[in-house]
Amino acid sequence: MIELHKKIKHRFNYEWSLEDAKFKKDKGNVFCCFSCGGGSTMGYKLAGFDVLGCNEIDPKMMEAYRENHKPKYSYLESIQSFKKRKDLPKELYSLDILDGSPPCSSFSMAGNREKDWGKEKKFREGQAKQTLDTLFFDFIDLTKELQPKVVVAENVKGILLGEARKYVSRIYEEFEKAGYYCQHFLLDASKMGVPKRRERVFFICLRKDLAKPFLYNKDMFMQAPKLELNFNEPEILFKEIYDGKGKPITDYKKQAWEHRMLSDSGIADSKARARMKVSDFNHVYLKMEKVMPTITGKAEHAMSLFDKPIKPSQTELKKGGSYPLDYKHENIGYLIGMSVPPVMTAQIATEIYNQWLGTIHTTPPTQ
Q1: CA nearest to 231, candidates 198, 273, 287, 187
Q2: What Cα–Cα distance (Å) separates residue 45 from each residue in 175, 222, 324, 350?
Q3: Which residues are catalytic?
Q4: pLDDT digits (tens, 9 = 90+) for 200-248
Q5: Does residue 83 sit in the same domain as residue 181?
Q6: What is the DSSP letter of 196?
């Protein structure tokens, strides 16, 4: 058994376990697409929702999801195939929330962006080729079919920048055609009780026939319903999750690490000072008095402690990503880097319930 903190300073505890968590399942039901290892799934569970299952194209990710979450329904196939199914259970046609995180490397500032748009590519080994920048619209097609009360779609900050903003306009147009009011938010996990920085964009949509209680007047015109998402919880510094049990960095990186200064953001700065070949530009230092930087899919190779020549430990990564400490996976750093932090989703889901779904559930249907 994992002993949880007795005193929780935040709405949700980032240090938790699947074994010990008692999910209420009284807020509504959810289905997750592009589910990966279940970051969003765990967030909905923490917030009191019943997650019915998932759709995922990656066999290894599905294996991890099934082992850790035991879903009632799970579909290992592409979203293009899944959205065409005519044999889905009735429960999926009465969802409170349809959630999805379409793979987003086409919009990431760290990727090729425009050069990759419209091209088929593999997101990682084991997956079929897909045109990644159109997956969002396949997800909206599924929305049109299932007609959930609320839709939550997550993506990278880069979708709001440069030419990618044209996709945002099209996303709004497609949700409008599907019968939904849509709005988007750029949120930082470090302001939401997660011990790391991670900025993500969330498109949150409410089905129009349910929106009457939430419409408001402005200058004598009825305006679309607005969800308020304002989070400003105290930041959690790396020293609060530190255990110092990570594996040593390579001797070559340690050579550079020995030349580090407090002003260095990562190993590349130290290499330049040591007059070594400058590389590892994405390798960052973890500093005790700072919030953990964004955990990427290469976390265990692209992070090292500033005070000690070691990588982050498995437990530090799990706490940083607000993943349960008993989550089972052979490459937890990769999984957390690809996932929405559970506590981040739990915060959003709680506000969706408090501001929208709670009212919808208690409002008698119109005669």
Answers
A1: 187
A2: 26, 35, 12, 10
A3: 104
A4: 999 999 999 999 999 876 655 667 889 999 999 999 999 999 999 999 9
A5: yes
A6: B
